[in-house]
């Protein structure tokens, strides 16, 4: 009997070697509000919904209020002083890893790990509803002076608009949350 169990376990081990586990999209059943042609829209939408879920879990798990959750996070998130370890859930690291693999986030880049030259990031910025903000972000990116800390007060009241401007919500998630987590990620994350 022990020999049979050993053989079965060995067979499972051999057949699973070299296979990477697939990422489990937890929010694929939600409306796909981000659409950037030629990009990994499933990942972008997952990043948005997972970010907001992390905020709700930390700041308003009862009501899931954008106003309260974003309000509590934005200033410290955009200036990099949020307690990211206490906000993250089990979905966070795999998303950051996938964003790095897609080259949306870059490990060795300062002051932000967000790759502003990536077509997905350009699409996100191009679709921000607030024209003045969109122009300001593009000008800062073009002049190579973009820094998330410049937007701490500008985004402070964003929570009440989060449902109306999903691209800006994702931009805040990428710039104020995921790119900050690159600095605290373990070096040898398991593959998903």
Automatic annotation (TrEMBL):
The keyword Signal appears for this protein: yes
What organism, scientifically named, is this protein from?
Answer: Dokdonia pacifica
Q: Which UniProt keywords apply?
A: Signal
Q: What is the lineage of its organism?
A: Bacteria, Pseudomonadati, Bacteroidota, Flavobacteriia, Flavobacteriales
Q: What is this protein called?
A: Uncharacterized protein
Asked whether the UniProt record includes Signal among its keywords, one would answer yes
Q: What residue range is the signal peptide? A: 1-21
The organism's superkingdom is given as Bacteria
